[in-house]
Every structure is written in structure tokens, then in C-alpha cells.
Design goal:
- By secondary structure, this protein is α+β, with helices and mostly antiparallel strands.
- The protein has two domains: 194 residues, FAD/NAD(P)-binding domain; 141 residues, D-Amino Acid Oxidase, subunit A, domain 2 (D-Amino Acid Oxidase, Chain A, domain 2).
- The strands form four sheets. An eight-stranded mixed β-sheet has the order 6-7-5-15-16-17-14-18. Strands 9-2-1-13-20-19 form a six-stranded mixed β-sheet, covered by helices on one side. Strands 3-8-4 form a three-stranded antiparallel β-sheet.
- It starts with a strand and ends in a 17-residue tail after the last helix.
- The structure holds flavin-adenine dinucleotide (FAD).
- Flavin-adenine dinucleotide binds next to helix 1, helix 7, strand 14, strand 18 and helix 10.
- It holds the Pfam family DAO.
């Protein structure tokens, strides 16, 4: 069995490390910070395939949802994943689009149905009825959310039980390339680590980690702004999406908030603190939906960057002209990681190509 280096211990790196180690591969995971210390640690992490096109990308996300569910059989319990579904209502101007989306998803056998306000309030009794108004509500019973760091730790621990080695605080500065083939990596501290194959799972840092020694996979990252409440008196059990803001439970009574238009009000360079106007505004919006939690202030705010390949789709596989090198970079990694980890490990170990990944090869950027 080959020696393989996985760079990065987010949800993707730990998923592929677990599957490789399970297949008997000698795996070393090199992580610049700590397990889940990158984007995975700051993610809304809604597991779904609600708005994923084209069809192959929708199917890939459904495979991710199924893979999360299947981990229950493998691990006995999956405390990192929460079901509960998702409810969604829209402003009048967006309802035609929502209707078309639900029809398309039903056509694709995705679990979604229309419910009325009374049924929505039975699911989430703390929501103010007037926040929903007369909006039709879409109910996605199989959606859920992930605690990505808990998941990544579980995958890494399972990999280590199968012999994988984890080295944290080990930053990769580039690849060792000889005769068009990767032979290992160079670390920022000047060390060389040799391996038969290198899997780059550094997400938004993919091109920095390869240090100019591999073709650049073009990324089009976007900024995400998340706000967290302190524990609040509300019994929210699921992901809620509304024209006012989106939110979900985040443990111990805390809620995590996201609202698309607020992303544009922040930058990664901006000092982020819970007292910032943008965070206060988001929590105020939330109290329009959950008046029972007022008065409340944000407990934390985070600005982070989504690792998105230029065309919005996953980039999974070898890159042209460089042997023994495999890249995994994607948005929707909270949903996709258990499926992508298993598919990638299968490809790396068997040398075959999974048809599910055919449309997501990095090679499309170099044609
Ligand atoms: C605001 C926001 C909301 C999101 N919402 C959702 C959602 O609702 N549903 C969903 O499915 N997905 C969502 N995502 C996307 C999802 O979080 C990411 O796709 C996923 O976390 C990416 O995981 P990763 O393992 O590829 O990357 P990361 O978690 O970033 O892991 C990469 C790791 O590599 C390490 N690293 C970096 N450089 C080096 C180096 N040179 N050497 C060694 N290690 C290095 C980093 O420290 C990090 O730990 C969201 C993302 C954001 C930002």
C-alpha cells in the first residue's frame, strides 16, 4: 500500500484520510493550524441539495446527505450531525422562483413538500406567526446541519485508530516534484516529507499550499458573515430560512444567523467583534421572527471565505501534467465531505475513476 500525505484537516481532508486509512493506506495528515481550524470551523453547514445545479451536482450533494446518514450504521451514533429538516418561506417577489425550485426538486425525487403556516408553527412554535404572514412554506424533512469540527475530529480520530498520523501546526510550503511527478512536500520550517502521493485538501488555500509547484485551480471565493446569539429561550429544532434572515441551532440554546445581503457589508480585513453594527442588526432581524428571545445581543461574529472553484462546482481529482497529486476543493463541503472522502479514496487506492465525479475534474480548468 502507498504512503499518502493529506494536506489540511478540515472536513474534506479528515474524510479522505479516514477512508484511505480504512483501506490500509499509510496516511500522514499535515495541518497548518488544528483540526477544523480553517473554513470548516466557521460554516453555516446546512446539509442539503436544495439549490444545486446542474443535475450532476445535485446528485453529488444528495450522495453527501446519504453518506452522512450512512455514518450512523458505521459509527453507532453521529453526534456531529443533526436532522430536523428545514423550513423556508420567501418574500412575495421571490415566491415564483421558489415554486419552480420546489417543483424541480420534487421532479428529482428530493424530499420537499408544501405546508401551511399552522403546520410550520407546529414545527417551530416560537416563530411569530406574523413573520410568516401569508407566505407558503416549503418543508425539507431530510435537510439538517453539521457540527463540522466535531465531525472532522471524529473522522481524524477514526483514521488515527487505523494508523494515520496527524501533524498539526505543520504548514506545507510547496511540493517536491521530480520528472513531472510529486514525491512529497516541503514544509514552511524547511522539512521535506516524502510520499507516493499527495492529496491537497486545503480549501481556499489550495494554491498557496502547492507553492507554485502545481497548476493553479482557479477559485472565486466569496465572503460569508455569521453571527451567533448567546443561549436564548427558544426551542428551535431545525434550519429556518426566511426573507428576514436564516438561522439554526448552534448548541446549548445558541443560534447561528446568516443573511445573504449582510455578506456584502463585511470584508475579511474588517475587525470583527460582536458589538459591530452589522451583527447587532442581524440579531435585531432575528427578534422579528423570534420576539420571545429579546432583549438579546450578539455573542460572536465571524467573517470567513468560502472555498469555491471558479465555476461554482467542486474540483476533485488529479491535475493535468502532474502525477501523484490529487486536489479536493469545494463549496458545500459540510454536505459533500463524507461522500467525496469515500469517492476520492476509492479512486486513489484503486486507480479507477468514479463516474459521479466525471463533471467535477480540475482538468476542466486547463482544457
Ligand atoms: C459562511 C459559510 C457558510 C457555509 N455554509 C455551508 C452550508 O450551509 N452547507 C455546506 O455544505 N457548506 C457550507 N459552507 C462550505 C463549507 O464550510 C466548506 O466547503 C468546507 O468547510 C471546506 O472544507 P475543507 O476541508 O475543504 O477546507 P478547510 O476547512 O478550510 O480545511 C483546510 C485546512 O487546511 C489547512 N491549511 C491551509 N493551508 C495549509 C498549508 N499550507 N499546510 C497545511 N495545512 C493548511 C487549514 O488550516 C485548514 O484546516 C459554508 C462556508 C462558509 C464560509
Amino acid at each position: 500500500m502507498p504512503d499518502i500525505i493529506v494536506i489540511g484537516a478540515g472536513v474534506l481532508g479528515t474524510s479522505v484520510a479516514y477512508r484511505l486509512a480504512s483501506a490500509g493506506v499509510k496516511v500522514t495528515v499535515l495541518e497548518a493550524t488544528r483540526v477544523g481550524g480553517g473554513t470548516s470551523g466557521v460554516s453555516f453547514a446546512w446539509t442539503n441539495s436544495c439549490n444545486k445545479a446542474p443535475r450532476a451536482y445535485h446528485d453529488l450533494n444528495v450522495a453527501g446527505m446519504r453518506a452522512h446518514a450512512a455514518l450512523m450504521d458505521e459509527f453507532g451514533s453521529t453526534p456531529w450531525w443533526h436532522g430536523g429538516g428545514r423550513i423556508e418561506w420567501k418574500a412575495p417577489a421571490e415566491r415564483a422562483e421558489q415554486k419552480a425550485k420546489v417543483a424541480r426538486l420534487q421532479d428529482w425525487d428530493y424530499p420537499v413538500e408544501w405546508i401551511d403556516r399552522k403546520q410550520a408553527l407546529e414545527l417551530e412554535p416560537d416563530i411569530a406567526p406574523e413573520a410568516i404572514g401569508d407566505a407558503p412554506v416549503a418543508w425539507y424533512p431530510r435537510d439538517g446541519w453539521l457540527d463540522p469540527v466535531v465531525y472532522a475530529h471524529a473522522m481524524m480520530s477514526a483514521a488515527r485508530r487505523r494508523g494515520a498520523v496527524l501533524r498539526i501546526q505543520t504548514r506545507v510550503a510547496g511540493l517536491i516534484v521530480e520528472g513531472g511527478a510529486v514525491k512529497g512536500v516541503r514544509t514552511a520550517s524547511g522539512e521535506t516529507v516524502y510520499a507516493d502521493q499527495v492529496v491537497n485538501c486545503t480549501g481556499r488555500w489550495s494554491n498557496e499550499a502547492s507553492g507554485g509547484d502545481a497548476p493553479v485551480v482557479p477559485l472565486a471565493p466569496t465572503i460569508g458573515f455569521l453571527v451567533f446569539t448567546p443561549p436564548v429561550p427558544a426551542s428551535i429544532q431545525r434550519v429556518v430560512a426566511s426573507p428576514i434572515c436564516d438561522f439554526r441551532p448552534d448548541g446549548a440554546g445558541r443560534l447561528m444567523l446568516h443573511w445573504g445581503p449582510a455578506d456584502a457589508t463585511v470584508t475579511p480585513e474588517l475587525g470583527v467583534e460582536p458589538g459591530m453594527d452589522q451583527a447587532i442588526d442581524l440579531v435585531k432581524r432575528l427578534t422579528r421572527i423570534l420576539p420571545g428571545i429579546a432583549p438579546v445581543k450578539p455573542e460572536a461574529a465571524r467573517v470567513t471565505v468560502r472555498p469555491i472553484p471558479k465555476d461554482g462546482l467542486s474540483a476533485i481529482g488529479p491535475v493535468p501534467g502532474l502525477q501523484n497529486y490529487y486536489v479536493m476543493v469545494t463549496h458545500s463541503g459540510a454536505t459533500l465531505s463524507p461522500a467525496l472522502g469515500a469517492m476520492a479514496a476509492d479512486e486513489i487506492v484503486s486507480g479507477t475513476r468514479r463516474p459521479e465525479l466525471a463533471e467535477f475534474r480540475p482538468a476542466r480548468f486547463f482544457a
